[in-house]
Amino acid sequence: MKDEADIPRAPTQLYLISPLDVGGAFPDRLARALDAGEVAAFQFRVKDVDQHEAARLAEPLQKICADREVAFIVNDSIGLAKRLGADGVHLGQEDGSVEEARQALGRDAQIGVTCNASRHLAMEAGENGADYVAFGAFFPTTTKVTKHIAGLDVLEWWQSIFEIPCVAIGGITPENCGDLVRAGADFLAVSGAVWNGDEEAAVRAFHEALAAVQG
User: Fold this and answer.
1) pLDDT tens-digit profile of 14-38?
2) Distances (CA, A) of 202 to 6, 74, 96, 120, 149
3) Which DSSP string corresponds to 29-91?
4) Which residues of the chain have pLDDT under 50?
5) How far is CA 112 from CA 41, 176, 177, 196, in A?
6) Which of 41, 61, 115, 179 is most solvent-facing, going by the fewest CB within 10 Å?
7) The predicted structure's pLDDT at residue 8
8) C-alpha dist (Å) from residue 153 to 15, 60, 102, 180, 190
């Protein structure tokens, strides 16, 4: 819990989420994106491939992140995160518990939990030892099916009470991110806004937008 004597919140940072296709030239695109501006974390998110193939695809991306001191987070799979020795795992509501992830990955792993727009799920995740909670979607997105819509109020509420960082996700662009930053998002999780165009220009545009809000 927070109190009025707490130090000011750290600046909001970028958290990149991979497209589903991370083969081909994607490692080069990731390197360009990470070199274009500071990124706190990269989430490896692939679907419908077995763990062996996922590990093969992840290997070059994990090295690119490690070389740049960017946290490499695996989406959904505790088992894959353990196999890769990843920096952490991001869990949906049906991907296993924080306790299971902590036991498998160790105390230093970064464990995040999707909490949709639910204050209850977020508090539960925090009580169970999550390192961050993710709220969304805040805007329309084509990256995944939108089942939950979150409002700025959930970020304001979380930031006013809890010390655990919160991540905003869902349709975030350089043009619409300002209100999320002002409301208290510690991280902006972005995918399509970066990978659907020029990744270097997109990362720079996000940093310009963040600087405009945060000074």
Assistant:
1) 999 999 999 999 999 999 999 999 9
2) 33, 23, 33, 34, 24
3) HHHHHHHHS--SEEEE---S--HHHHHHHHHHHHHHHHHTT-EEEEES-HHHHHHHT-SEEEE
4) 4-5
5) 12, 24, 21, 25
6) 179
7) 76
8) 21, 39, 30, 10, 20
- E strands, the chain, in order: 13-17, 41-44, 71-75, 88-91, 110-114, 132-136, 166-169, 187-190
Residue 142 pLDDT: 77
The per-residue pLDDT for range 56-81, each reduced to its tens digit, is 999 999 999 999 999 999 999 999 99
In sequence order, what are the residues at sequence separation of 6 or more whose Cβ sits closer than 8 angstroms to the Cβ of residue 150?
Answer: 116, 117, 135, 136, 137, 138, 168, 170
Q: What Å distances lie between residue 182 and 91, 169, 197, 198, CA to CA?
A: 26, 15, 26, 26
